[in-house]
User: What shape does this take?
Amino acid sequence: MLGTMNRKISLILLALAAFYLIMTYNLPSYTYTEIDADMVPKGLGWLLVFFSVVLFFIKDSETEEQRERRNIPKKEIITLLAVTGMILLYIFLLEILGFVAVTALFVFFCSWFLGYKKFITNAIVSIVFPVVLYMLFTQFLRIELPQGILPF
Assistant: This one.
């Protein structure tokens, strides 16, 4: 039953979709809206179920070359784990330090870690990008982002 990689991945995605749909059906509903906030997450969850089922029944015609390309070198696995750690640290520090400070640090150090060595350009981008996003969200879209330690 689980002979091909497509079937294994589809079952993992199906389990993920089931968990996701359970969580979206537990979202609170609002009485005064015609389209509730949970419509898009439910649609995405059912779309994931649909594509998981389609993937399960797709005939796997993988060549030996494609199988060899699937092997990830150990150095790249370490890089992926390091970036995942940075993302988790970003999530942990977002409420504490605020959106602008944490995003600036994340963009700077993640770019540096991934090999971008122009520090001045990296510093300018890592400061301007979160400030522009913060102003866009708070001033134009009226969506609050975590302030953290900064006074604005």
Remarks:
- Residues 10 and 52 are 5 Å apart (CA to CA).
- Helices lie at 5-25, 39-57, 64-69, 74-97, 99-113, 119-140.
- The chain has a mean pLDDT of 89.
- The longest helix spans residues 74-97.
